[in-house]
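The instructor's notes for this session suggest beginning with a concrete chain rather than abstract definitions. Hand out the sequence below and ask the class to guess, before any prediction is shown, which regions might be ordered.
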Amino acid sequence: MTLRSRLTLGLLTIAVILIVPLLLAMRSLERLHGEAKALRDRDFAASLLLGRARDALNDLRSAEMAVLFVRDERSRQTMLSAITDVQRLADSLEVYGLGGSVRDVRAAMQAVATGTQQEHEAALLHHDRDAERISSEQVLPALARAEAATRDAERALRTRTRDRVAQAASAAHSGSTAAVIGLVLAVVVAALIAVRLTRSVSRPIYELERGMRQVADGDFDARLDISPSRTDEFGRLAVSFHDMSQQLAELDKIKAEFVSVASHELKTPINVVLGYVQLLNEELYGPLTDKQRKVTIILEQQTQTLSRLVKQLLDVTRFEAGTVRLDVRPLQLPQMLKELEQAFRVLADQRGIRFHLMLHDGVPDAVYWDHDRINEVLGNLLSNAFKFTERGGEVELTVFPVDGGVQMDVHDTGAGIPPEQLPRVFDKFYQADNQRASSRGGSGLGLAIARQIVEAHNGHISVESTPGVGAVFTIVLPERVNARRSSAPQQAVPETV
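After discussion, reveal the predicted structure:
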């Protein structure tokens, strides 16, 4: 499945999961709406009709008294009209499912109608005793039964309404509970899907970023933890990354071989040229004029510079190939440092720079290093310090013991190095922007060789600097190093001591 399809499917799944609680809430609202509508259309309407029926029975009782005492046709018609109203209301109540109560009202009204007719006829004949007897024995008991049936209907309606309201409340509570539970579950499931979806995207991106960073640092053997057999975009990127790494490794190998071969082949003709120039300076082929001597001196200087560059290129390629063997032997460290101080004392006096060597207590007298290589490293760092320090500045070499080794700091008050360039100062051919502070440029190989020599001694080199204040190069070496061939160094950012 492609990344686009996976994202689309994941987003659709999340959307569907979040819609489920909404559907549950809508269903609960529909049930609640149905219960409310039933209350309005049935129970509330039935309650109104029962109220009207109760009022009509009261009117009927008043009309019955008028029939008994007034004894005119109008009273009779009023009585019959009231009976008709109660019967009509009873018929209307039939559809609301009040059961036998409505039938009882209807039967009572039938008895009231019959008794009222008899009562009216007796009243017209002035048979008062018969009229009162009919009223008390037939009409009033029938009215009482109708009123009792109406009250029963009201009680039944109240009970039904209470049950319906309880059902509506229960439905609302159940619906809200189901909606909340559904929402929580939906959020949890959606979060899990989102996390999984995010990890499925972020993890390969992190792997690609890590691989690119390793390749940028020169590690062309970097491998991604992404299967090339994946069918999505990341699988294709992994294949492209591996192809790119292999091609870059081949190019780097070809470049190293070319530099090695070219440096080796240039070494012999350069030495020949340098030899003949020196013979000319010695006037072995005849005297030279002053102008010719100036030219030959310049030629000798430039040839020596070219010879040093070729030697540095050879050193770099040999270290990278792991073919340099360290000549480790006992070395009198204080003596070597003092000889180094004497060698640079003349340069310090010429440039008007204060130079100090500080040996702290506890520095071992003897160490097991490659004398020439370590001397080359310190000489390179001191040369750079003098090169970038103005007249009146200060250069200091501080040596003190550390746990199981020796730390040497070369501190200067020169131009300094910009912070963003510090991680790259040990890369081949890299020159920081402080080169303009020097009267002469460099090849960009000295610090790269210094790092390779230090790492071949199982040590590490680092730098700290503040532009305009100066720089401090720090070397930490173990006291004893076994004689061995140097391994190809890893391209990594130097540690800071």
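Then share the key points. The first strand starts at residue 328 and ends at 332. The chain is about 65% helix and 10% strand.
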